[in-house]
Amino acid sequence: SVSMTALRTLDQSAKLQNVLYEIRGAALAEATRLEKEGHTILKLNTGNPAIFGFEAPYQIVRDMLRAVPTAHGYTDARGIVEARRAIVSRYENVEGFPRFDVDDVYLGNGVSELITMVMQALLDQGDEVLIPAPDYPLWTAMTSLSGGTPVHYLADENNSWQPDLEDIRSKITPKTKAIVVINPNNPTGAVYSREVLEGIAQIAREHSLLILSDEIYDRILFDEAKHISMAQVAPDLLVLTFNGLSKTYRVAGYRSGWLVITGPRDHAAGFLEGIQLLASTRLSPNGPGQHAVLAALTGVQSIDALIAPEGRLTLQRDVTWEGLNAIPGVSCVKPEGALYAFPRLDPEVHEIHDDKKLIYDLLKAEHILLVEGTGFNWPTPDHLRVVNLPEPRVLAEAIERLGNFLASYKQ
Ligand code: PLP
């Protein structure tokens, strides 16, 4: 006879306890359920240009397609040398960016994979990493998953969301190993000043911190904003710079990112061997996506038209920013870069105790999906993130509906 054993309960691992990623959390599951019921949901939860009518640049598609028949093998764990050479050239054109060579470049399946690899290679239990609040939450999640402790430093909304250097200093302990900089910033749209970047570099110098600089929006800049890389102000320090094609070239689905290592490294040989080991264990980045990097970096830079004064992304940034500031009790710092706005709901006007519930209630009432500020590790329930990717008309209507909803919303 066949005996039946009760199936053992499978819970998620304890490692995931502090791993949060609300951008694709419960509210998205509810949005998907509403869509199955036949509703149309305006999904402003991810910075995914493709779903808002942004096409992949023709040249990237053409060159990648040409390469596909011969891109079927595993490659070097760092990626194909032609693409890494294109990355070296890209930064040679950035004045003051420290020199590096092809062996200092890793391609990855998006910046996301590289963040995961670097945190796993770097952290031991209890090691602290300084991460901005608000942040792009993968940095916090991967710090936790890797056994580290995320320690959040504040960006100052009253100072155009620039990082607060005093707050950074006050949070350094003997266990602080690295500092994460996200510039231009997701979710605030801030582009950091030279003064602030130099201040961060100085703190890193004094406390021997590794600098991890996420610059995926470095070419998405509005008005007069200028981007300065951390590596430019800290050529004497070990800096890992992360970037990729998802945003600037609107091909997030090709999963193409890179990591560049600059500065002194004799003191970090073990850590860098760890990155090489983890890159090797995943064999190689996807082949076609590497050819997309080569095509993108050597081709026409079509982002320039989108961020020109009358360019689509600039107009959308304006519509979002103006629309949000027109809502009573809502204020929004003007985004200088990236694809988002991070408005504040004045607690005197809008008493929100649970911003996750606000997002859920907005979704149900208006069929608009945003992400709550606490999903970006912001400490208080008084912010939201809006994605500036839909056409101006769609954005304007969504923000008007948000305003109408907030006018009568109570918790
Ligand atoms: N870093 C930041 C700041 C982002 O906003 C994103 C995506 O939104 C990523 C990294 C991940 O990008 P990728 O598509 O290269 O994995």
Automatic annotation (TrEMBL):
One of its GO terms (molecular function) is transaminase activity. Its EC number is 2.6.1.2. This is alanine transaminase. Its cofactor is pyridoxal 5'-phosphate. InterPro entries: Ala_Aminotransferase, Aminotransferase_I/II_large, PyrdxlP-dep_Trfase, PyrdxlP-dep_Trfase_major, PyrdxlP-dep_Trfase_small. It comes from Microbacterium nanhaiense. Belongs to the class-I pyridoxal-phosphate-dependent aminotransferase family. Keywords: Aminotransferase, Pyridoxal phosphate, Transferase. Residues 41-402 form the Aminotransferase class I/classII large domain. It is an enzyme of class 2 (transferase). Pfam families: Aminotran_1_2. CDD domains: AAT_like. It comes from the Bacteria.
